[in-house]
Amino acid sequence: MKFFIDTAKVEDIKKANDMGVICGVTTNPSLIAKEGRVFEEVIAEITSIVDGPISGEVKATTTDAEGMIAEGREIAKIHPNMVVKIPMTVEGLKACKVLSSEGIKTNVTLIFSANQALLAARAGATYVSPFLGRLDDISVRGTDLIAEIAQIFEVAGIETEIIAASVRNPIHVTDCALAGADIATVPYNVIEQMTHHPLTDAGIEKFQADYKAVFGE
Ligand code: E4P
What does this protein do (predicted)? Predict the structure, then answer.
């Protein structure tokens, strides 16, 4: 399983990129709004940091296929690595079909069922984004959905990649890797949490203490 970072915060993207662990970025309208910056400006800056797929979502106020197609074409023009993120609706599927047929990469988002993922794949989506954490929030096991989609895609020979989204903690990461996600898009704080283990910290302290006891500082 590969990692994308799920944020529009440039400092966090730089930190994760410097660690060498991410190969793409996902954003959404809430994450862009949180930064309070112009969409095109922040996205262009992100493309200059990470050399991999960068998902930029159509505006939350654009709900018809024609509008999403027009916006998607503009997003695709920002950089060759751009992926147009489209919500899972009938209009979104129509937009996905047209943009995909033009060779524009798409990420169908807000996936909460295996059937939605299957429809998005058949509409030509490059990626589908099932939202793990938001399902867990309503007492539905999000990782079960990832496993179902992975199994269906495997059986049907579908090449659409599964991005496990709405990842909230390190256990989610392990679980979606085991469930067969191709990618997990993870906020920076979770990447940071994943680096830690108390035995690693204790081991470093012991190595330092043993070395210093014999050789000094
Ligand atoms: C991913 O594509 C989504 O933007 C994101 O993972 C949503 O996460 P949240 O449910 O924590 O807002």
Answer: Transaldolase is important for the balance of metabolites in the pentose-phosphate pathway.
